[in-house]
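Hypothesis: this fold can be encoded by more than one sequence.
Test: take the structure tokens below, design a sequence, compare later.
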């Protein structure tokens, strides 16, 4: 990204040229027909002012000539009528053709970004910079679709200015050069405007993101309802108002600076054009030439003014467009591997993880091992280090010491696609995808050719099959009331998430509180099912409920990032220690 302080005039020109080239390249490939039409129309539009000079001179020459040639007179008149009459229409049609190019580019850019985001490894998505870049790239799409039109405008203006210079130069070189120079104040001003915007926009964008996030909490059904029930929505609304006000003040400063530079550019352009007109007047070139050149200069003026905006927009778009390019390039080429590969043994050896800026390790010298067919549990209070251990196993977090192996093969973050395919992960913040039931469960596997029977088996194992059978459209039922679909309870959503893991059928299952929202009866059934078919896989469960731990082959008790006890449920229960302290209340006989 170009640092605003470094953005000299030549750098700004370079940035605008690079952004224009990229925009033209994409437009020629993805919206080729409409872009070609836009280019031809823009060229015609750009040639109108020089053509006016030429045609007007011929017309006035014919009018003032003692021996008029009616054919020449008529031709000049017709040419001028066409040029002036169609000028606006050609400009409008060029704009519309550019918009139609932009539509195609918008489709292309968004689809490309969606696939790039889908190809990101979990570890990269855990990096806040990556999610910010994704949002910036998404926001960049709208201005990027307008970039080819702006690039054409820029090229068109250069052609207009050069054409005017050529048309006028022959009878007044000074006037011709001054007409060309009239472009300069705009370019210089826009360079400074681009610098102001490059400096001013990042804080505005940050404030707008915070404001949009707060607004989203008010608009989303779950958080909006909670805030309405709490009667505290106005606090979030105040936050929106505060952020928005700050954004307004920051943006206002940017626009004020823009206005100052715009005014300076207008004065500079006017002075240079006045000088060009004066040069015409003092040149003994005759009234016809002077009148023609004056008309041409006046009609070229508007094109020059608009170009300033196009130039400024292209420069200020550059950092966002670069973020888009980087995001889609970095994330590509991810191989899709079908899950299902079995794993014999998973081993964590002396793992230590420290988050950046943290005073101590979140996980300290942790070792554990689990064989195929075993089901183990990680327990401990909030913040004890269970999720960090899991995130290290799946390569979302990297440790500062220790190793993790699957079947003696060391695995490292970020995981390669083959290793990732070995895991089936149900996290606490599982997704509530409001698609059809078939599609929601199908998200569990990258395979496309699973059968309805396999989905039903997964749904039944997750104890949600009965509810889906009751729905009129079965697997085709649309979920989510906002789409006119069926609403589900929190526990039912969690069961669907578990059904995804069943369909995935990976070699290593990691279930982080898989039944936290599920009632006790269904929870018992789900754990019974997990025990029943655990033999073909490795299962690691995080649970806070004592009785779900009874059937575990081993329980690892975490405390302050360390494993302080290991054993089966009955072993741990019968010895004093952290486990007994943690679960004493849950296990004490109820009065
Ligand atoms: N991304 C992070 N950056 C910095 N510190 C973190 C991060 N994630 C977790 N921590 C800290 O690491 C420690 C262990 O957290 P972890 O999420 O592993 O605990 P946990 O046992 O899974 O807790 P819970 O039962 O609440 O899920 C905590 O002190 C937590 O504040």
């Amino acid at each position: 990204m170009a640092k605003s302080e470094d953005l000299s005039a030549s750098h700004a020109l370079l940035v605008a040229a690079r952004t224009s080239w990229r925009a033209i390249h994409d437009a020629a490939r993805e919206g080729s027909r409409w872009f070609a039409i836009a280019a031809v129309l823009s060229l015609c539009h750009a040639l109108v002012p020089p053509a006016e000079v030429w045609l007007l001179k011929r017309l006035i020459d014919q009018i003032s000539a003692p021996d008029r040639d009616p054919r020449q007179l008529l031709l000049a008149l017709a040419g001028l009528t066409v040029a002036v009459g169609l000028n606006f229409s050609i400009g409008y049609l060029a704009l519309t053709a550019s918009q139609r190019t932009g539509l195609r580019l918008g489709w292309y850019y968004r689809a490309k970004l969606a696939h790039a985001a889908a190809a990101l490894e979990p570890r990269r998505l855990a990096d806040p910079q990556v999610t910010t870049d994704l949002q910036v790239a998404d926001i960049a799409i709208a201005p990027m679709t307008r970039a080819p039109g702006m690039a054409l405008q820029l090229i068109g203006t250069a052609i207009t200015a050069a054409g005017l210079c050529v048309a006028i130069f022959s009878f007044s070189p000074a006037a011709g050069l001054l007409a060309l120079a009239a472009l300069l104040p705009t370019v210089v001003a826009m360079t400074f405007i681009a610098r102001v915007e490059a400096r001013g926009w990042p804080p505005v964008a940050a404030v707008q993101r915070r404001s949009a996030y707060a607004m989203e909490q008010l608009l989303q059904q779950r958080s909006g309802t909670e805030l309405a029930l709490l009667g505290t929505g106005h606090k979030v609304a105040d936050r929106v108002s505060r952020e928005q006000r700050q954004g307004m003040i920051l943006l206002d400063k940017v626009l004020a600076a823009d206005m100052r530079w715009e005014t300076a550019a207008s004065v500079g352009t006017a002075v240079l054009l006045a000088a060009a007109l004066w040069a015409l007047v003092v040149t003994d070139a005759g009234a016809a030439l002077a009148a023609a050149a004056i008309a041409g200069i006046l009609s070229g003026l508007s094109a020059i003014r608009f170009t300033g905006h196009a130039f400024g927009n292209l420069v200020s778009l550059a950092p966002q467009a670069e973020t888009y390019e980087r995001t889609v390039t970095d994330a590509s080429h991810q191989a899709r591997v079908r899950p299902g590969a079995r794993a014999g043994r998973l081993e964590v050896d002396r793992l230590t993880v420290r988050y950046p800026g943290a005073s101590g390790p979140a996980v300290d010298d942790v070792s554990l091992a689990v064989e195929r067919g075993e089901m183990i549990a990680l327990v401990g209070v909030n913040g004890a280090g269970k999720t960090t251990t899991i995130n290290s196993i799946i390569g979302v977090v990297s440790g500062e010491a220790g190793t993790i192996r699957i079947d003696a093969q060391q695995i490292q973050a970020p995981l390669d696609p083959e290793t990732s395919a070995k895991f089936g992960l149900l996290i606490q913040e599982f997704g509530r995808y409001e698609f059809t039931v078939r599609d929601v469960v199908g998200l569990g596997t990258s395979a496309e050719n699973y059968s309805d029977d396999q989905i039903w088996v997964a749904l039944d194992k997750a104890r949600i099959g009965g509810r889906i059978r009751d729905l009129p459209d079965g697997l085709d039922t649309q979920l989510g009331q906002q789409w006119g679909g069926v609403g589900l309870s929190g526990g039912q959503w969690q069961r669907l998430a578990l059904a995804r893991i069943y369909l995935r059928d990976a070699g290593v299952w990691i279930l982080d509180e898989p039944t936290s929202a599920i009632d006790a009866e269904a929870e018992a059934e789900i754990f019974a099912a997990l025990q029943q078919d655990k033999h073909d896989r490795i299962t690691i469960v995080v649970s806070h409920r004592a009785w779900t731990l009874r059937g575990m082959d081993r329980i690892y008790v975490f405390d302050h990032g360390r494993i302080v006890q290991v054993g089966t449920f009955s072993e741990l229960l019968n010895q004093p220690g952290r486990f007994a302290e943690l679960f004493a209340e849950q296990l004490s006989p109820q009065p």
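Residues 1-5 have pLDDT under 50 and may be disordered. The radius of gyration is 34 Å.
Hypothesis status: open.
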